[in-house]
Amino acid sequence: MTHPEPSSATDQLADSITVHVNLAERSYDILIASDSLSCVAPTAESWYMQRFPSKDGQRSALVVTDRNVANHAETVLSSLVDAGWKAELEQLEPGETTKSLDVISRLYDCLVAMKADRKTAVIAVGGGVIGDSAGFLAATYGRGVPFIQVPTTLLADVDSSVGGKVGINHPAAKNLIGAFYQPLGVCIDTSVLTTLPERDYLSGMAEVVKYGVILDADFFGYLEQNIAGLKSRDPGVLRHIIARSCQLKADVVEQDEYERTGLRAVLNYGHTFAHAFEALAGYGELLHGEAVSIGMLYASRLAEKRGLIDADVTARQRTLIESLGMISRLPPGSDFTADAILDKMKLDKKTVAGQLRFVLPTQMGHVETFGDVPESDVRAVLAELA
Ligand SMILES: NC(=O)c1ccc[n+]([C@@H]2O[C@H](COP(=O)([O-])OP(=O)(O)OC[C@H]3O[C@@H](n4cnc5c(N)ncnc54)[C@H](O)[C@@H]3O)[C@@H](O)[C@H]2O)c1
Ligand SMILES: [Zn+2]
Asked: How far apart are alpha carbons 71 and 63 in whole angstroms?
């Protein structure tokens, strides 16, 4: 991580942190700052110049957002217009249904109407839904136009805006239609998180906790020691946890960009259980991060049962999750049977030939993938934590 010199024109970037994602010619920077939305234009401009050194003439951009964050998108739009860009704003409905072909088709029409060329940037201002959809638009229009992410949820800051996965849903399955497409850069402003509803904030925090458990025991310790700052959304604490999370995910993505070597699977800690819980609860009932925080505790208990870790590793996760106000058990009324949960797990795309695979901790800060977990152990954990 580098701490760039503050620019005199952009005091807002004084305490910024930059994480570099190293992917050969697709490398890019993630800038993490506070009160920096009005700096999107100069930042985008500098990324542009690095990628398209010979670019001259008019710069243009389509800013894609949703209704709940339209005010933040307006700030980005003004910053671009003031800097001489030809920029337009397209506001979508909030929610998962926006990740659809119909919406993408409408956005293609917007690009055509503004006579977009292959140097017209698509700028996503929003959570994972906007980032995934706008990213898919950018990946496919004209076989790829420059894409910039301005994430506005904690989940988008630490997860969906890192790694290059973009896509939309098909009625048959979530994220079925997509691509790997790296952005030109990601501009994170922690101050936009002040308006994020508590449930969404804590849902994103589950992925932050996950990075500590899977890759960095010291980072897990930092979270344990900064409960108050995390709960009050302290800008300095947020910049640190977002930067560290992005760096940890980037380290994994750099080694397995296209999910081919299996290394990227470590990011799925807690997710085998989580995906089953989400599916059984009905999508939308249990937020993804809520399912992940519960799923991590199940996976950790399973690791204990397999003799991989001491009970203390699970206890620390439970204490941290509960201290932050995140949910640690399935909501009352979710009486899913073990058979139903196992059936959903076997449908998970990570399952190989019907054999369940679990990412389990072997110590705090390290996980491994196991394809040999007996179903009886999984059933025992499900019965115990039900
Ligand atoms: N591409 C990836 O690698 C990846 C990884 C994880 C998740 N995802 C995807 O991300 C999506 C979920 O992302 P999400 O949790 O950010 O959901 P989201 O984009 O739906 O945002 C959650 C809610 O918060 C609102 N919101 C966003 N920012 C706000 C702010 N600053 N203030 C007030 N309200 C705000 C949104 O309008 C929405 O209602 C899913 O579609 C998931 O598939 C993608
Ligand atoms: Zn997740």
From this structure: 12
Pairs from 13-21 (Cβ < 8 Å, separation ≥ 24): 13/39, 15/235, 15/236, 15/239, 16/239, 17/239, 17/240, 17/243, 19/243, 19/246, 19/247, 19/250, 20/250, 21/162, 21/182, 21/246, 21/250, 21/253, 21/254
Rounded to whole angstroms, the Cα distance separating 53 from 304 reads 54
Question: Of 124, 126, 242, which is closest to residue 183 (Cα–Cα)?
Answer: 124
| Among protein residues, the one whose CA lies closest to atom 7 of ligand 1 | 160
CB environment 73-102: b (16+ within 10 A), e (fewer)? bbebbebbeeeebebbbbbbebeeebbbee
Are residues 190 and 210 both part of a single domain?
no
Q: Which residue range forms the structural domain that includes residue 141?
A: 11-195
If one counts every other C-beta atom within 10 angstroms of the C-beta of residue 146, the result is 22
User: Which H/E stretch holds residue 185?
Assistant: strand 185-189
Residue nearest to atom 14 of ligand 1 (CA): 128
Q: Is the pLDDT at 50 greater than 70, yes or no?
A: yes
pLDDT, one tens digit per residue, over 305-342 is 999 999 999 999 999 999 999 999 998 888 899 999 99
**pLDDT confidence of residue 355:** 78
Tens digit of pLDDT for each residue in 137-154? 999 999 999 999 999 999
Q: Are 141 and 247 contained in the same domain?
A: no
Among 66-75, 342-351, 373-382, name the one with the lowest average pLDDT.
342-351
151 CA from centroid of ligand 1 (Å): 9
| pTM value surpassing 0.70 | yes
Count of beta carbons in the 10 Å neighbourhood of residue 158: 26
Which entry of 72, 240, 244, 275 is annotated as an active-site residue? 275
Residues in the chain: 386
Residue 101 falls within a domain, yes or no? yes
- Catalytic residue chosen out of the listed positions 68, 99, 169, 207: 207
| Same domain (yes/no): 216, 179 | no
Residue nearest to atom 19 of ligand 1 (CA): 127
